[in-house]
Amino acid sequence: MQVRQGKGEKNNKLRLVAQDDSCDKCATKRLCITQGLDAEQLGAFDRLSRTRGPFRPGERIFRMGDSFHSIYAVQSGAVKTEAVSDDGRTQVTGFYLPGEQFGVEGIGQAAIPCDAIALKNTWVCEIAFKPLEELCGRSPLLQHHLFSVLGEKICNSEYQFMMGRNMRAERRVARFLKCLVLRIRSLEGSEVRQFHLPMSKEDIANYLGVAPETLSRTLRKLDEEGMIRNEAKGFELLDIEAVNRIAG
Amino acid sequence: MQVRQGKGEKNNKLRLVAQDDSCDKCATKRLCITQGLDAEQLGAFDRLSRTRGPFRPGERIFRMGDSFHSIYAVQSGAVKTEAVSDDGRTQVTGFYLPGEQFGVEGIGQAAIPCDAIALKNTWVCEIAFKPLEELCGRSPLLQHHLFSVLGEKICNSEYQFMMGRNMRAERRVARFLKCLVLRIRSLEGSEVRQFHLPMSKEDIANYLGVAPETLSRTLRKLDEEGMIRNEAKGFELLDIEAVNRIAG
DNA sequence: CGCACCCTTGAGTCTACTCAACTCTGGTGG
DNA sequence: CCACCAGAGTTGAGTAGACTCAAGGGTGCG
Asked: If both were cysteines, with which of A131, A221, B111, B241 could A48 make a disulfide (CB 3.0 to 4.6 Å apart)?
C-alpha cells in the first residue's frame, strides 16, 4: 500500500535481502492509499502498519482459515494467493508485485479465504485493518482511497471472471502477458522488453485455468509467430501490437 | 441494501406493479447495511437513498461507461449485470435478487464497467455513494458494514473466478443451482422446492461460461438422474443432496 | 392462427485435457 | 570438474467434453 519513508535502516536491510527490491518506487504508484494525507495522519498510518519479512520462496504470509486482521502490500519480491477448493485442488487466484495490495479478500469475512505465499524473497507491509477503519473515520481521503482499492479489486475480479469463460487459451495467455507487461513496466520503466517471471509456469497455467502443457504449447506458438521469445524463467517481448491484437 | 420503512404509499405502488415483491422481507437480511444504526443515522441514510422504478424487463438501470454515482439494492424483481468485452461479446457477470446489492463495481473507477438490466418489473433502492462515504465517516458501524459488503463481493468474485476454471459444465450448473436455492430460500423460506428463474437460460449459460446447448443438455441430464425437474422457466428441486454432491 | 422467441435436440468438429515420455536446468556431492 | 538427481518444463498421441451449426419443438403474444 505504501512504503513508509524515513526508515532508512529497514529499507537498507531490505535491499540487502532482496536484490530486485523495487520498494523505493512504490511511493509513486497510484494505489498508494496514503497519498495526500497530512503529517499527523501519516504518523497514525505508520503506527498501524509494520514491515514484515523476509519471507522465503514458498513461505506463507497468511493461511486460509486464519482470522482476518490485516491487509498487506508487497514491498519487494512477489506474492501469489491461492485457495483450496472443496475437491482438494488448489487454484491460484492472484499474483502481486511490489506496490500492489493483497489480503483484502478477508475483509468482512469470518476467515481469510486464501493462502498468501511468497514467490521469492519478499518483504511486505502489514496494515492492521481495525485501526485502519478507525483512521478512515477521521480521514475522508484515506477512506476514499481504501474504497477505491476495494472497488478496483472487485472490478478486476469480475474482469478475470469474465475472461475465464468462452476464451481460447491463446487469448487468455496473451491477456496475462499484456497485463504483466503493463504492471512490470509501471515499476521498472516502459522501455523494458525482458521480463522475468517470479512465478512458475505451473502457477501461471493454474491461474489461467489451463493445463501446464497447454500453456507451454501456447507460449511456443506465440514464440514461433514472433510475438515473444519464450524463455525458461521469463520472456522477451518482441511485438506488443501482436500480443494486444490476440488479447483483443 | 435496505428497504426503507414508513413509506407505505410507495410500497403499495410497488406491490401493484410487481406481484412477486419480496421487499418487505429484505429488512431481515444480513446484508442490510443499516442494521444497528441509530435513528439520526437512519434518517441521514434515508436522505441519501431513494426508490426508483418500475424498471421494465430489459430496461437498463445504469449503463457501462456511465460515471459512477450510486450503489444499488434490489427491492423487488431481479437484475442482471453484464459487460461487453473488447471483441463485442457480452458477458453476464451477476444476477441479483431482492435484498442484494449491485453496482459496487463502479466504486473508485472512472466509469461503471457494466450494464445493469432489469429481468422483470423491478424496483431498486439507489444510494448516493459520495454522501454515503461522508456518512460512513460519522458512523463507524455503517462504514464497517460497507467494507464487509465489498469484502464479501471480492470474495464471491474470486470464488466465481476459481469456479470458472477446470470445471465440468455439470459441476458449474450444480453450483449455480445450489447457490440460487440458498438465496431464494433465504427470501422465501427453506421449505421451497419450486424455483422460478427470473433470467433466461441463455443468460444463465452465458453467466456460467457454457453454450446454451450445453446448459440445456446438462439440465436434462440432471433431470434424467432425478435430481431436479427441469422446466421452461424454472426447476423443481428433488434431491438437494445429489446436487450438493455434484457441486462438490 | 401465425409469428417470434426461447429452448431443445442432433451431428460433426475441435480445443484442450490426460497420460506418458523426454529434455533441460540448477543444485549436490563425489 | 563432472556425474547424478530432482523438479520444472516441453513434446507427442489419443481422447473426451464442449462448441458450432442446423433443424425441430413449445409457448406466449399480437
From this structure: A131
